[in-house]
Design a protein that fits this description.
two-stranded antiparallel sheet, 60% helix, Multidrug-efflux Transporter Regulator, Chain: A, Domain 2, 6 helices, mainly alpha, 139 residues
Length: 139
């Protein structure tokens, strides 16, 4: 059974442009095409795309997903490398959580300190105006 890119998108919840992007960066192999050049997909694409979608939802990078996909093609190998990738990702998540907690504390202090009088006295806006802070980037 084969189906169109639109049907693949419906079955996996992944948008068509994203599917094309995954093909372009070689996370998904290029599908067979009909005589009319329409892409045709099978159940293997559904499985692979669901894997990619779920890994992205968990925050894995494209490169980590590429490594995980390569490893999944070798079921006889030990999963030590997979565990190492997952552990690195957990450490990255922990760093982000720590950073978000710092940001939350800073913003909470500003809200708590705000007397809610005039905009000119607003602690939140004052905090956002302090130069030298790089709050928008994760470590």
């Amino acid at each position: 059974m084969d189906f169109s890119i639109g049907e693949l998108a419906r079955q996996t919840g992944v948008k068509v442009p994203t599917i094309r992007y995954y093909e372009q960066i070689k996370l998904l192999p290029l599908p067979l095409r009909t005589a009319g050049q329409q892409r045709r997909y099978d159940a293997g694409y559904v499985s692979r795309l669901n894997f990619i979608r779920h890994a992205r939802e968990l925050g894995f990078t494209v490169e980590a997903i590429r490594e995980l996909l390569a490893m999944s093609a070798r079921p006889e190998y030990p999963c030590k490398e997979v565990d190492e990738i997952a552990q690195r990702h957990i450490a990255d998540i922990d760093r982000r959580i720590e950073h978000l907690e710092i940001l939350r504390s800073e913003l909470q202090r500003a809200v708590t300190a705000c007397r809610q009088e005039n905009i000119s006295d607003c602690q939140v806006l004052g905090t956002l105006s302090v130069p030298g802070h790089d709050h928008g980037k994760f470590p």
